[in-house]
Amino acid sequence: MFAAFTDRSWLWVAAGFYLAGFVLGTFSLLRGGRPSGVANYVLILVGYVLQFAGLGMRGHAVGGTPIGNTFELFQFTAWSAITLYLLIGVTFRSSLLGYFTSCLAAVLTLVSLAIPAWDATRRAHIFGGNPWIELHASLALFSYGVFALLALTSIMFLARNYSLKSKHLGGWFSFLPSILDLDHIGLRLLVAGEAILTASLAVILAYWLRDMASADIAKIFTTVAVWAAYALALGLRLGGRLLAKRFAWTCLVLFVLALISLGPVDASRHPATPTAVAAKS
Amino acid sequence: MSSDGLFVIGANHHRAPLEVREKLALASGAAEALQVELATVDGLREYAVLSTCNRIEFYGVAAGPGAAERVAGAFCAKQNFDPAAFAKIRLDLRGRAAVQHLLEVAAGLDSQMVGETEIFGQVKEAYAAAQTRRSTGPVLNRVFQKGFQAAKHVRTTTAITEGQVSVANVAVDLALTIFGGLKATRILLLGAGEIGEKTAKAFQSRGAAALTIASRRLERAMELATALGASAMPFEQREARLAEFDVVVCATSAPGTVVSLAAVREAMRKRPARPLFFVDQALPRDVEPAVAELENVFLYNLDDLAKIAEENRSAREAEIGKCRAIIVEKAEALWRQVEPQVAALGGRNGTTPGQPAGPA
Predict the structure, then answer these.
(1) Which of A78, A118, A156, A243: disulfide with A71, CB 3.0–4.6 Å?
(2) d(CA B98, CA B331)
């Protein structure tokens, strides 16, 4: 039965599980209850395994990390965010984080699947067989996953701040973690994301220093700009200049900009070739 | 004449006003003596006594008629209370109704503050004490044990215990919403009156360790600090040292504000990343209202706290129907289990579902 499944088929099913987590959580909230942390975690975990299978098949087919077009970039970013959620979600003790994560994963994966143009072509041999470039790209995208989770905790922070300031504490607001916990987690995620992005940049800069001819200025500029923006936010946060609501809004806006920057980064690669990767199981 | 079977008699806050409950309250010595007396009541096979500030209830299983009446008589005699007056306020339920009552009590449904959880522990203590005295048997053991399970089920599957309904506890819940925990939270109490003391105790009961008290009368602050295991500081230092605290409970009787916007702004400049929570329980208010506009500062006054407490109370009351439906179902099932045992004792309420007997 599964023999006919392509990598995209698995990714569709995975997206379905993420969507199911989101729908289940929404249903619970609309009924005035708390989203089931366990049920949501299981749905996300199953979706994650299926997405891993789909991305694995594609990676096997293309002989490297599947980040060769916008579709794959969105899929990989969602997968990275879920990886992190599965690792830290249990300690976070917030069923709402799972709810928001399933929402984000469903949006990123379904949007990327729903736009065939994003997967019509992909750059072949984008890493030129160079493992350092591949490592750089993988780390960079993983940091985007961390920033995605940071954006989610920022939304939760803003919601909690609104509930406390407006004195509306009932309903789904009551399921949010404390505002101080959200602030601490946001800071830790920013440090982690920035560290991973720094490592990614260090890898590629070390490579380019040896081979300047292969350096892609537009790509360097975009990546460094994202890194610098997050570094600035971190510096201001640690210096006590960017706090609470403004910090949360900054993290949210930066993530949207980082997502938008994936377009130029992808376009700056070598000329595209039609996708020929409908890998089958 | 039929047997009393399974019964509960007693008095509680529904029909007995406070001054009557004061007279009915069992002192520990009297309680012990009464228990000894109950062991000799003719026809009484099993019994357990639940005594709290809001209720005194005797759960019993009788093999013959009149046992419940004799229990009531023994109690009135011990308390030197007029039996006729007791009859007017008396709770008297038999069979399934008695089972249902126990379940409602254990689930907090019958409490003055609906949904409170302390009663569950009190019922457990009453049962444990009865077990120690060996005054329970197969019927009461099953009724109490299954009753605890049913009460837990009600508490976990409904929202009957959610949300605090007292102003002091609402303030503590808000602090938890802001700080996550109270262990490392530093609390300043301004004013050493009854309201402030009550709130400070609520914070301490939920884990707050660092409490400082400042009052316009330093000796009163020191006195309360000693009683609560806290520290005291001069009232005049309240604004200068504001940055040292996370939660400020204001409950003075000062005629104007005692915490200014400028002082809070200055405090937040020193600790910008850490929230500051003001609980203003004073009338007139102690904290300048504009403080609420500052980033990372949260200000709740008496009206805000009372409104939340009222919303929580309404939410609990809205759950009562759901809880009662569960309890009726569980009580029915439980009664079916113990009915043959009660019937074997010859009780009529063992052969037909029991009905509330009403006040005698």
Answers:
(1) A118
(2) 9
Chain B CB contacts of A167 under 8 Å are: 300, 304, 307-308
By three-state DSSP, how is residue B358 classified?
coil
| Alpha carbon distance B259, B254 (integer Å) | 11
Assembly ipTM: 0.75
Q: Give me the CATH code for the B6-162+316-350 domain, please.
A: 3.30.460.30
Best CA proximity match to A240, nearest among B174, B263, B243: B243
Query: Using CB atoms within 10 A of its CB, is residue B358 exposed (0-12), middle (13-18) or buried (19+)?
Result: exposed
Q: How deeply is A256 buried, as exposed, middle or buried, from its count of CB atoms within 10 A (0-12, 13-18, 19+)? A: exposed
Residue type at position A214? S
| Structure tokens that stand for B331 in this block | 């009580």
Query: Could you tell me whether strands B231-232 and A273-274 are parallel, antiparallel, or unpaired per DSSP bridges?
Result: unpaired
Inter-chain CB proximity A244 and B295 less than 8 Å = yes
Q: Cβ B178–A178 below 8 Å, yes or no?
A: yes
Residues of B with Cβ-Cβ distance to A246 under 8 angstroms: 295
B53 classed as catalytic: yes
Distance (Å) from the alpha carbon of A177 to chain B's nearest alpha carbon: 7
- The identity of residue B106, as a single letter, is A
Asked if the structure places residue A279 within a domain, the reply is: no
Q: Would you list which residues of chain B are within 8 Å, Cβ to Cβ, of chain A? A: 159, 163, 174, 176-180, 272-275, 292, 295-296, 298, 300, 304, 307-308, 311, 315
Nearest CA in chain B to A92: B180
CB pairs under 8 A between A and B: 45
The pair of structure tokens assigned to B28 is: 């520990």
Question: For residues B284 and B276, what is the distance between their CA atoms, to the nearest angstrom?
Answer: 21
The verdict on residue A160 lying in a domain is: yes
**How far is the C-alpha of A42 from the C-alpha of A35, rounded, in Å?**
13
Picking from B305, B56, B314, B274, the residue whose alpha carbon sits closest to that of residue B160 is B314
pLDDT in tens, A206-261: 877 777 666 677 777 888 899 999 999 999 999 989 999 999 999 999 999 998 88
Q: How far apart are CA B132 and CA B286, in angstroms?
A: 53
**Residue A280: inside a domain:** no
d(CA B140, CA B5): 11
Give how many domains chain A has, as a whole number: 1
pTM equals 0.73
C-alpha B354: how far from its chain's center? Answer: 29
The range of the structural domain enclosing residue A220 comes to 2-274
Class of domain B167-309: alpha beta
Which pLDDT score, from 0 to 100, does residue A41 have? 87
More confident residue, B282 or A34: B282
